[in-house]
Amino acid sequence: MSKRLLAAAELVPKGAVTADVGADHAALSLYLLQKGIAPRVVVSDINPLPLQRGKETFKDSGLCHRADFVLADGIRPLLKYSPDCFVVAGMGGETVSGMLCEPDGSLLGKSFVFQPMTKAPHLRKFLWENGFEITRDILVWEHKRLFVVMKAAYSGVKRTLPELEYFAGREVLSRREPLWRECLVFLSSRLEKEIRGMEISGGVASKKRALYGEIKDILEGKDYEPKEII
Question: What average pLDDT does the structure give for the chain?
Answer without folding.
Answer: 94
